[in-house]
């Protein structure tokens, strides 16, 4: 018998496509905002303190419009007959003191630190300043 020659069967070589591996993305970290470091004390500008105003008698703390009276916190002594000037954002007038009261009791003199009631000729507002006129 004749030997059959085996045909050489060529195997097909499968070519694999080369693919790039995808990098696994990690979740993004939250950005932490950093504050700028504080400026050194040498670079700070010194803010001058407000000087005590000359002639300041006190500050208006309350106003009663029906009786036209003001409550004033005194920073200097005050007495009946003194001339005062009331100065504020919308207020500016001068008058002579005719009546002083502490807790509805008439007085003639008031000391520093007391809150007094005072009849005024015009409307005043809180934080208006009272000066010697």
Helices and strands, with pairings:
Layout: E1 56-64, E2 69-74, E3 78-79, E4 83-87, E5 92-96, E6 100-102, E7 105-107, E8 109-110, E9 115-119, E10 129-132
Antiparallel strand pairs: 1-2, 1-10, 2-9, 3-8, 4-5, 4-10, 6-7, 6-9
3D architecture notes:
There is one protein chain. The chain is mainly β and 133 residues long. It has a domain at 56-132: Beta Barrel (Elongation Factor Tu (Ef-tu), domain 3), CATH 2.40.30. Helices cover 0% and strands 33% of the residues. The protein has strands spanning 56-64, 69-74, 78-79, 83-87, 92-96, 100-102, 105-107, 109-110, 115-119, 129-132. The strands form two sheets. An eight-stranded antiparallel β-sheet has the order 5-4-10-1-2-9-6-7, with no helix packed on it. The protein has a two-stranded antiparallel ribbon with strand order 3-8. A hairpin with a 4-residue loop joins strand 4 and strand 5. It is rod-shaped. The model has no long low-confidence stretch (mean pLDDT 83).
């Amino acid at each position: 018998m004749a030997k059959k020659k085996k045909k050489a069967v060529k195997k097909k070589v499968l070519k694999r496509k080369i693919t790039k591996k995808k990098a696994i993305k990690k979740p993004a970290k939250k950005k932490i905002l950093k504050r700028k470091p504080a400026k050194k004390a040498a670079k700070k500008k010194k803010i001058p303190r407000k000087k005590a105003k000359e002639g300041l008698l006190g500050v208006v703390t309350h106003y009663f419009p029906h009786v036209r009276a003001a409550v004033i916190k005194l920073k200097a002594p005050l007495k009946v007959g003194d001339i005062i000037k009331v100065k504020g954002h919308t207020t500016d007038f001068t008058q002579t003191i005719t009546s002083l009261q502490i807790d509805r009791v008439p007085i003639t003199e008031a000391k520093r630190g007391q809150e007094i009631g005072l009849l005024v000729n015009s409307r005043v507002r809180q934080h208006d300043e009272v000066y010697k006129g």
